[in-house]
Write a structure and sequence with these properties.
CATH topology: Hypothetical Protein Aq_1857, Chain: A
Distance between the termini: 24 Å
Number of strands: 7
Number of domains: 1
Order of helices and strands: EHEEEEHEE
Strand content: 35-45%
Shape: globular
Structural class: alpha/beta
């Protein structure tokens, strides 16, 4: 299942609050063309077949194909140098870290 870092959860919470989404709204991740990448958008409610991840006041809706693609991934936020030289924060998908066996 997709893991969400605390930093990403804070960013999602901020985005959904700023967008004044209704209660239960969240970030939706879809894979309309998986080979083209993923599509992130804000949604007032999940789609009919979406997998819903929620906790700590944050909701993420995963379209079924996206849920499959992201099953072993982690959603994070990373600073990126913007075109204007300013630092921007962007969502990033990475592999989940596995705990080394003792």
């Amino acid at each position: 299942m997709l893991a969400i870092t605390d930093t990403a959860a804070e960013a999602i919470k901020s985005l959904t609050t700023d967008a004044e989404l209704p209660e239960g709204g969240g970030l939706r991740i879809a894979a309309p063309s998986p080979e083209q990448g993923l599509e992130l958008s804000l949604a007032g409610q999940p789609g009919t077949d979406d997998v819903v991840l929620s906790g700590d006041g944050v909701a993420v809706f995963l379209e079924p194909v996206a849920a499959q693609v992201l099953d072993d991934k982690v959603l994070d936020v990373q600073p990126v140098q913007g075109a204007d030289g300013e630092q921007e924060l962007r969502f990033a998908i990475g592999p989940q870290q596995t705990e080394p066996e003792a």
